[in-house]
Automatic annotation (TrEMBL), chains A, B:
Name of this chain's protein: SDR family NAD(P)-dependent oxidoreductase
Keyword set includes Oxidoreductase: yes
Alphabetically ordered keywords of this record: Oxidoreductase
Pfam families: adh_short
Phylogenetic classification of the source organism: Bacteria, Pseudomonadati, Verrucomicrobiota, Verrucomicrobiia, Limisphaerales
Gene3D superfamilies assigned to the protein according to its UniProt record, in alphabetical order: NAD(P)-binding Rossmann-like Domain (3.40.50.720)
Alphabetized SUPFAM superfamilies for the sequence: NAD(P)-binding Rossmann-fold domains
Organism: Limisphaera ngatamarikiensis
A molecular function GO annotation: oxidoreductase activity
Family: Belongs to the short-chain dehydrogenases/reductases (SDR) family.
């Protein structure tokens, strides 16, 4: 099984990578070069670099990765501002990380027969709160896009899985002063994700 | 009452403008200069120009428009491609028209006391269909963003209204070979929208 983890240097991605060690060939993509190399070496996987929100880089990276059987899009950033103060920069940061990167993956990923690709959504009730409009919009865009792509790719035997997670206590939240109360530990989140995805869960998983 | 219609040269925007003639001071914004000038002259309103998806232009335009009591964001484009063929160009076109323009409006519009601002959503069941991923994602982003902005702006006495419409038979659909079967005539759609928005409808209207 060839396993591609996008966002492998993030909190959730790292936890997924560690828990998947020994279950297949690990291909790791992440934004922090040193952490990525160390992780790949530690786990016996390979590392690939590229900005997934850039269409050309995403295309090259996914071509290089080759056909995969299990893919995790564990890419994301957090940001906060009320709508009256939200400009292009925050909107683009949120859309690029959560949505455009996923759209590029859905366009260029090469899937093995029966492949599964996992994306991370949000609970509307948790994120549609003051200050989180840009984040909530980017997640909503991802979720809608995935719903359509799922219908399109089913005929190719590819399963697109949306996993909704409550907040996970990762460095994603550092710019906002730390994770929300009750956030899951990344190891716990990764364990639940793998249990659902490697088991018989449906196309939409709520954890 | 000062009424600002964004997208006033589109099918729905024009119909809204005509039906609002005589109910207040009409400020019209649209992408087709000649049509816009003619319409403003015919209805006794004024016309403003600018690209609403560009933050600087949107800011200047909305400053020039001044405080408004009723605003319609009747801006949109249609586009179609499966996810395996959807690149940056289509994604940006959809996001700019449906979502970024609305975010700029929500940032820069000047609202009178008790103002209402109306945005147009989509029915998930109609748009989350093969080929419409980018369109569906942009509408989903708009809807989520609006839900958050509504909570933020309520304290200022501004009402943000989401109107879900079935397809409207406008030139929006020309690039796709014409409107879907059963599309509403623009005049009929505008009539229903105004009936709901000027009446006692809630924050989310399904027509």
């Amino acid at each position: 099984m060839r396993i591609l983890i996008l966002g492998a240097t993030g909190g959730l991605g790292q936890a997924l990578a560690r828990q998947l060690q020994g279950q297949g060939e690990l291909l790791l993509v992440g934004r922090r070069p040193q952490v990525l190399r160390d992780l790949a070496q530690e786990l016996g996987g390979s590392s690939l670099r590229g900005d997934l929100s850039d269409e050309l880089e995403a295309s090259a990276l996914l071509e290089q990765a080759g056909p995969v059987d299990l893919l995790f899009h564990a890419v994301g950033v957090a940001g906060r501002a009320p709508a009256r103060e939200t400009g292009r920069q925050l909107l683009e940061a949120m859309l690029s990380a959560h949505f455009l990167s996923a759209a590029n993956v859905l366009k260029y990923a090469r899937f093995g027969q029966g492949a599964r690709a996992v994306f991370f959504g949000a609970y509307p009730a948790y994120v549609r709160v003051p200050g989180f409009g840009a984040y909530a919009a980017a997640k909503a865009a991802l979720e809608a896009y995935l719903e359509v792509a799922r219908k399109e790719l089913r005929k190719d035997g590819v399963r697109l899985i949306l996993v909704r997670l409550p907040a996970v206590a990762t460095p994603l939240w550092t710019p906002l002063g730390g994770p929300p109360r009750g956030a899951l530990a990344p190891e716990e989140a990764a364990r639940k994700v793998l249990e659902a995805v490697l088991g018989d869960a449906g196309d939409e998983v709520a954890l």
